[in-house]
């Protein structure tokens, strides 16, 4: 009897939990139209030009752009996601990944390799200049991991004049004692020197014969001259590795991946402006050599493809390596920033999302800057944002992008439909906007569906919103708009069919539940005209179509 009791209890839990599990999984789809409208509403007119993109493992699922890449009278180029823009410090993400990718090819596990002190990879002459004799800098305790999570303890240069005797900024940093307390408490203030050193580590790993030849050629140079020579020559090798070995492995035909965007012949390059009203802008291309900590340009579309390949693909980084930089406050491996969003936190239990920001040096004309962001989003997505004037920094871009992502993953509209019953709240709306009703459902614990009623139907002057803790069946109701969390209205996921069933009441929510209770079902498509529900054994790429409602 006890066995029968536990079997019944298990079945009951399945019937209770599976719809909720399906709901959380289905929330992952992004409504492209809602995303674009949300971005435009938040940022249009506030910056010179902007471009945003969201991608999952299959490709770009939503994007938005507006304003000017080159202002009227200064090039007349509209901003778009295929326009190349300087991503600044987001190059650190790619340099860090390139280093991890190289470490994967070595015999020891990556986690073990990361504990190797950086002096093992540094130019030989640095060992003589900075670590010879009786000098105690503690630099021999700085590991590759300390560099990648920004906790090396390297000093940050206070000004350009102090490096005169060292020749370069990194030379000056190496001449200073490492702040040992920073190696243990993970509070090192952000500075470029951590990732500047990858300019030397990556060539030493990728081209050991060439770096040995460089050291031989520079054997007679003094400290300042050597540092300038090494920066240039190691920079050339770093650029060669990125252009010839690393970037070609991404499934992207680049709009432009370069540290000299001004040299691109197609001209689709975003200039940098001091503000949205500037009449003239400029570029901040690299001078002398390409850098591991910044100065590279990509289009937003290209960067989205790069990030999705890094995060979800198999060609760059093994899954075991990706686990080294989890979605948490610490360690700060690769991604420096963490940005929160209260509504997403409420629905995901993730407090912060790992991100990296980029801000370029002032351009040659007017001192304008570009500001960019790359971020790891929940539910198997990544995001990219870029603007080409000074008004918004990385944190502000993150807020805009997270707001839009939240809205685009929660929008589900059914026109002239009511879902009667299961009401937990109802109230008047001062503005006749169904999105307000949807948002109130998003913010309300236990809300799984909603119905909006246009003004004049239940109240002479106001629209009314009904929130529900279940998903009642549809009924025709002119002037009503309803929504169910997790349905992709106007999308078809063709192929990978497991089987099909006829939904008698022609309610797409019933198709979703059929998928939820079939352990082999990974996605579904409901065909409006026939009422047939197609269950899928994998998640096909979705395509816009008024025929269907899909989900996963």
Structure description:
About 3% of the residues have low confidence. The two termini are 38 Å apart. The chain has a 7-stranded antiparallel β-sheet with strand order 3-2-1-9-8-7-6, sandwiched between helices. It has a 5-stranded antiparallel β-sheet with strand order 10-14-12-13-11, covered by helices on one side. A 5-stranded antiparallel β-sheet has the order 15-19-17-18-16, covered by helices on one side. It folds into 4 domains: 95 residues, Hepatocyte Growth Factor (3-Layer(bba) Sandwich); 215 residues, Beta-lactamase (3-Layer(aba) Sandwich); 153 residues, no CATH class; 71 residues, Hepatocyte Growth Factor. Helix 2 runs antiparallel to helix 16, helix 3 packs parallel to helix 10 and helix 10 crosses helix 12. The longest helix is centred in the N-terminal third of the chain and has 25 residues. The protein is an alpha+beta fold. Strand 8 and strand 9 form a beta hairpin. It has 18 helices and 19 strands.
Primary descriptors:
552 residues; Hepatocyte Growth Factor; Beta-lactamase; five-stranded antiparallel beta sheet; 34% helix; elongated
Q: What is the tally of helical segments?
A: 18
Low-confidence stretches: 9-27
Oligomer status = single chain
Instruction: Output the radius of gyration.
Output: 27 Å
Distance between the termini: 38 Å
Q: Please, how many domains?
A: 4
Task: Supply the helix-strand structural class.
Answer: alpha+beta
Largest sheet: 7 strands, antiparallel
How would the global form be characterised?
Answer: elongated
- The helix fraction, in percent, is 25-40%
What is the CATH C-level name of the largest domain? Alpha Beta
Number of strands: 19
CATH architecture of the largest domain: 3-Layer(aba) Sandwich
> How much beta, percentage-wise?
15-25%
The CATH topology name of the largest domain reads Beta-lactamase
